[in-house]
Amino acid sequence: MKILVVDDFSTMRRIVRNLLVELGFTNTLIQEAEDGNAALVMLRAQSFDLVVTDWNMPNMTGIELLRAIRADAALKSMPVLMVTAENNRDQIIAAAQSGVNGYVVKPFTAVTLKEKLDKIFERLAAAAG
Amino acid sequence: MSVELDNELLNVFLIEARELLESLGEQLVDLEASPGDAELLNAVFRAFHTVKGGAGFLGLNAMVELCHRAEDLLNEARNGAVVLNPGFMDALLESLDLLNDMMRAADAGVPAEPAPRSVLDRLLIPGRAGSAPPVALSPPTASAPAVSAPSSQRAYDPIEDEFEAMLDAARNDRAPASAPSGTINDDEFEALLDSLYGTGAPGADVGAASAAIPSAAPPVGAASAAIVGAASAAIPAAATPAVAADPNAISDDEFEALLDSLHGTAAPGTMSAAVGADSSAIPPAATAATPVGAASAAIPVATTPTARPAAPTEKRSASTADTTVRVDTFRLDSLVDAAGELVLVRNRLTNLAPRGTNDPMERAIGELERVAEDLQNAVLRMRMQPVGKLFSRFPRIIRDLARQLGKDIELVTEGEDTDIDRTVVEALADPLVHLLRNAVDHGIEMPDVRERAGKSRSGTVRLAAGQFGDRIVITVTDDGKGMDPEILRRKAVEKGLMDEEQAARLDERECYEIVFRPGFSTAAEVSDISGRGVGMDVVKTKIVELGGTLSIDSRVGHGSTVRLSVPLTLAIMRVLMVRVGNRLLSLPLSNVTEVFELVPGQIQELDGRIVASHRQRALPLADLGNWAGAAGKGGHVVVVQIGHQTLGCLVDEVLGREDVMAKPLGPFLKDVPGVAGATITGDGRISLVLDLAGLADDGGQVLPSLRMAV
């Protein structure tokens, strides 16, 4: 499995990485990108199974990244988990409409992250099955 | 997360957050100057936002709360709901200071004091209540199994109950009783996804359903219709009539069509089997309960043409994440040391090598010489930092000072990308702050005074850096009132620093140097900012410690320039190797101006001192041999600049220039004035590295032990 963690703040990338490792994603290759632009380049160059992206980033925000992913024929079914700072209804609806698979509000624990990921994978399984 | 990981995370966070906060100071000052700069406002917002995010994970509640308030205010400013007046700017800058304090506390492992109410309140927009900050995680509970209970998971959602009630109401086919709120919870989100995709997943090939929109769509609620309405511009024509026909009705298929039009995935394909089947399982009211409509009217997504191709803007940022690595400065320093040692060994080998024999050994050593030099340069470059990193602190300081003094001052910086060894950068911070404060406090006049003098009301302080050979020159220039040599002479006599005769003999430049003497202050009234007379002599001492020099130029009525020159790096010293008796001494080349051989009769006596007549001037001589405890005949003179005196040092032999690394002499000999350390020469001998600046006293007078009297 390969996960791309996107955040402009390397501390946050490390936090997400640590939480993922804690959740047992140990055989997982976790890569990092510092904004949407960098993430897109990586997504197009390699194959990933999940994107965990921050919302608020310079150059290309998380929602812009999400839209770019959905607009890309090769990437459009890529599951995307959005990390937000606010439990803001407008934002999350916007993200859902743009095709986000799940969201998680900072700060979160490994358990919360797991719940969110489980939900995403359940939905993916349902869609596939 | 384990405690170890937390500690590691904390350290990473502190480093990264500190960088953010460092530039935040400058950005805030810039923002005050150009409040309309949306890009800048965004950057400032993001800095607070990012710090908050990280602090939340580390349980730094005080930081979360403060950042949250600042972020709220900045967000309102972004939305144009509030203008950041000086009062808000003060509050934001104060918040920045508090955040820095909190970071220090976190670094020291003590819990930070929460920000005082007064500051938090000043970040509030009058008449508006602040939003509740997200509660930070306390690190110990992060891995506690108890957290897995859903109830405690959601403990931080204050309106959870409301939502539960709403959802219950929805399940009972009743309209929600409570008003929609600005937040969303998991169940609502799931319901939202269901309404958007059925039980499918976003991005799955759901096909373009636009051609097959059922005319009698099951009513999902007014809410959903609003989305379509807002987005109708982007909806394929076929879909629009159906919506127009019944604004209150929308089917899942229409949603799919909407999403397809939004996503630009016009790819025709098979319908996801799950979509149609499961969507009916969601009670219509459940969707209605999520007030999608109210929110979506404000969703920019709907109206912006998102179908634009995501151009592969492969900026350089794509690679920086992978090509940058953080290294402990301690490791870096030891690397620099090791490279320095290597250079010493190389020097030795070069000395031992057979010369002119075209021996393989000679060639190998020649190669080593080159490689060692490359290595040393590369290692030194690693430790270099752009001086702009240091400069970025100053706009804030100038701004605060100017505001405090009621002056109007602009700070202009130049040459920010000049690289300096980081040890030098750090050592320059305090001296530069002093110089800038002086320029603001003593240099620049009050706006009215400036106007009367025919100048612009606003003063300018210019901070410029540039590299000249192996030295960095930094100048602090103000267009203020300048310094009057006459007043300086008088002050010097008044303060008992010298007698009148001495004062009268000083040339203009020497007059300016007086300000570097301890206990000298030119300000008529001592302000609490810079006028205690402790500033400039400290500056001088610091710069001299760095092997640097300081000089002042001034024109009455036009302003002053303080020019400081420091070596590019402290690791390597360029020295002139000389022999006095049987001792080898290394004189820093930065102090050496020239070398000449004495001719008979050149030494004379003047005013009770021994001088050499050189270039039509009497050059006072110093007996380095005597000072170094070696007896020499002294056939050569090395002309050096010590303090503001030019002095000729008698030596027996001038061996040449060398790059050396001065090693400290150990605790017992650490504080011997005039000695910087010792180094090993190419032929394995030890040479004292002199700190010539240390041979002058605070007043710039050469130590008596060096003087050659009759």
Strand coverage percent of chain B: 15-25%
How would you classify the quaternary structure? heterodimer
Low-confidence stretches of chain B: 139-180, 205-321, 523-534
- First-to-last CA distance of chain A: 20 Å
Number of strands of chain B: 18
The coarse overall form of chain A would be: globular
What Rg of chain B do the Cα atoms give? 36 Å
Instruction: Give me the number of helical elements of chain A.
Output: 5
Round the Cα radius of gyration of chain A to an integer and report it. Answer: 13 Å
Q: How much beta of chain A, percentage-wise?
A: 15-25%
Structure summary:
The complex is a heterodimer of chains A (129) and B (710). Chain A has 129 residues and is of the alpha/beta class.
Descriptive report:
The complex is a heterodimer of chains A (129) and B (710). Chain A is an alpha/beta fold and 129 residues long. Chain A is built from 5 helices and 5 strands, in the order E-H-E-H-E-H-E-H-E-H. Chain A starts with a strand and ends with a helix. The model of chain A has no long low-confidence stretch (mean pLDDT 88). The termini of chain B are far apart. In chain B, the strands form 4 sheets. Chain B has a 6-stranded mixed beta sheet with strand order 10-14-15-13-12-11, with no helix packed on it. A 5-stranded mixed beta sheet of chain B has the order 2-4-5-7-6. At the A-B interface, helix 1, helix 2, helix 3, helix 4 and strand 5 of A face helix 1, helix 2, helix 9, helix 12 and helix 15 of B.
